[in-house]
């Protein structure tokens, strides 16, 4: 059982959840993730460890409510429990001195990019973060990145804030003006694919943090298979970061939508509950977790 120490909203449908997990906090390195179970018999979902405070034994997760499990998790508050948090999993980001490093985050991808950007800055790189969202309220963590000395270029699809247009247009301009040593891309699959297309002509090292469907997160189930340079890799143990110029993004996108009908049906079930039944479900989740937590 993992107690939630803090929970708040940072954007529409995006929650910041700080969890008491001392062992994970002590071992975490940038780029790694955890597999979380929200209900006792529920599915396991991977979430990036955005921050870890080894001294306080806390890890910070950002969760976007896009389906049943993430929606239920988003409704939990400080004092509630998560049934299971396994990790840290995956290989850490390759943090080294690149000179100028650009981190491109789209939507919730900025939360995944955040620890990588901080790690790169701590290693002495000049870091430029190009972060995008549909509109102003979906541009995440700008203040937190700026506070770490990172130059931020915010972009919005609708022009309501920062630069009008996609993050890839801003990246195309940055690589003309700057001698960029590496680009990290985190976000929706089409965005990461487009970032790879922008940097390919100049052969700038480009790393994408892939988001395939994961189940166990330990290389046992094969659920997270991806193709990189014509070879099959398991993103949970070989990644999640790979050379973006070698990733088969089309296959990744196809595999990620394989369970769409099932996921939609589960979300429809949740949304069709009336308020009292929804409250009851949440009370059951809280009750089951609290019961397991008590000695
Ligand atoms: C390494 C990694 C790190 C991630 N980090 C974050 C993060 O920090 N914050 C965040 O909000 N999300 C993150 N995700 C995505 C998150 O795991 C999915 O949004 C979540 O699993 C959706 O579950 P659901 O039941 O709410 O939605 P569903 O309705 O079940 O699914 C919605 C969509 O989410 C994806 N998805 C569903 N199940 C899984 C699964 N088991 N594993 C991976 N993707 C799945 C699919 O693309 C699906 O179409 C990460 C994914 C990976 C692989
Ligand atoms: S999630 Fe099962 S092998 Fe990677």
Quick rundown:
By secondary structure, the protein is of the alpha/beta class. The chain has 10 helices and 17 strands.
Second rung of CATH, namely the architecture of the largest domain:
3-Layer(aba) Sandwich
CATH homology-level superfamily of the largest domain: Nucleotide-binding domain of ferredoxin-NADP reductase (FNR) module
| Helix and strand element order | EEHEEEEHEEEHEHEEHEHEEEHEHHH
Shape label: globular
Which CATH top level class of the largest domain fits? Alpha Beta
Helix content: 25-40%
Poorly predicted regions? none
Number of helices: 10
Strand content: 25-35%
Biggest sheet record: 7 strands, mixed
Number of strands: 17
What class, by secondary structure content?
A: alpha/beta
Mean pLDDT: 91
Radius of gyration: 19 Å
In the residues, how many domains can be counted? 2
Distance between the termini: 11 Å
Bound molecules: flavin-adenine dinucleotide, FE2/S2 (inorganic) cluster
Order of the strands making up the biggest sheet:
12-11-10-9-13-14-17
Topology:
Elements: E1 2-11, E2 14-20, H1 22-27, E3 33-37, E4 44-48, E5 51-53, E6 58-64, H2 68-74, E7 81-82, E8 84-89, E9 100-106, H3 109-122, E10 126-133, H4 142-147, E11 151-156, E12 163-164, H5 167-177, E13 180-186, H6 189-199, E14 206-209, E15 225-228, E16 231-234, H7 235-238, E17 241-243, H8 249-256, H9 260-272, H10 275-293
Parallel strand pairs: 9-10, 9-13, 10-11, 11-12, 13-14
Antiparallel strand pairs: 1-2, 1-7, 2-6, 3-4, 3-8, 5-6, 14-17, 15-16
Helix pairs in contact: 5-6, 6-8
Flavin-adenine dinucleotide binds near residues 67, 108 and 240.
